[in-house]
Recover the amino acids of this structure.
């Protein structure tokens, strides 16, 4: 728990944009791959409780934008908590809502070095791909008249059961899926630049949105 601008706020999570990857060196000289995350301006826009919504959660608005870029219902929703306008919203489940107030800001100052977080994002879409690339299958022989170099081969239906079972590993769309990386460590924070550096690689391409949540 930390005090930010005289408001008592408990860190639970934040949103940011993947800014790229690099590497740093620890005390022993070992190279560590890291991901740079540019933290968005995040503000609590709604507090959900069991009595009103059936569960406890805080809704966080992020992605500050001009007022004419959002709809009138969103403007009315945001006026309850802020004089700023945001284009995107996300939720974090919590056990107790007493430590949060509408309009509380969540920044990099709410986090400390060494904290473990889980990061959720969408992986890079790679379009329609074949069996080998999608499922890491081996190829067929390349010589002696083989006509099965990269083909899927038999899918094993047969007389019984006479159909292909659902979930058969075949060609199809690869990527563009929701991915969560667990137990990543915060290795650097910079409140002036709104920068957070996380250990390891994170899903998505540069400038894609990441949801960063403290481990339970």
């Amino acid at each position: 728990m930390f005090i930010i601008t005289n408001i008592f706020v408990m860190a639970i999570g934040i949103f940011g944009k993947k800014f790229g990857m690099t590497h740093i060196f620890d005390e022993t000289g070992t190279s560590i791959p890291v991901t740079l995350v540019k933290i968005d301006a995040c503000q609590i826009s709604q507090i959900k409780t069991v009595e009103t919504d059936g569960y406890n959660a805080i809704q966080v608005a992020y992605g500050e934008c001009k007022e004419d870029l959002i709809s009138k219902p969103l403007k009315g929703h945001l006026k309850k908590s802020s004089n700023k306008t945001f284009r995107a919203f996300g939720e974090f489940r919590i056990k107790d809502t007493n430590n949060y107030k509408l309009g509380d800001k969540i920044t990099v100052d709410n986090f400390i070095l060494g904290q473990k977080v889980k990061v959720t994002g969408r992986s890079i879409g790679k379009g329609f791909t074949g069996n080998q690339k999608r499922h890491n299958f081996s190829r067929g022989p390349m010589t002696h008249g083989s006509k099965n170099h990269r083909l899927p081969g038999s899918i094993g239906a047969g007389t019984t059961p006479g159909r292909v079972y659902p979930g058969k590993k075949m060609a199809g769309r690869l990527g563009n899926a929701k991915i969560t990386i667990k137990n990543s460590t915060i290795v650097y924070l910079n409140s002036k630049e709104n920068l957070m550096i996380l250990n390891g690689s994170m899903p998505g391409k540069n400038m894609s949105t990441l949801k960063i949540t403290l481990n339970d």
